[in-house]
Amino acid sequence: MALVEDVLKGGDLVTGIAAGAAAVIVWPLIRSLVRPLAKTVIKGGISVYREAVTLYGGAMGSISDLTKEAIEEIGADLAQEAAQGAVEEIAADLVK
Fold first, then answer.
1. The pTM is what?
2. Where along the chain do its domains lie?
3. Could you report the per-residue pLDDT of 5-34, keeping only the tens digit for each?
4. Helical (H) or strand (E) element with 38
């Protein structure tokens, strides 16, 4: 417990040397267990990222379709006026 408390408090030279020595001794023993686990975690992260990209693409496509439908329903002229008003507001905010 004292070693753990020393490490959590920042430790000292002896604690650092002890932790380094333990890592050098223990790493070869646990490397064969840790490596497959690390690879599995990395593969899972890549899979999650790919799924998130797919979901994002689908959501953006849906939003784009909804926007097109809304423009068709309200008319292109009214949509153009709304867009121009939004651009003017953004430009005014940037000038401030």
1. 0.46
2. 2-95
3. 655 666 677 777 887 888 888 888 888 888
4. helix 13-74
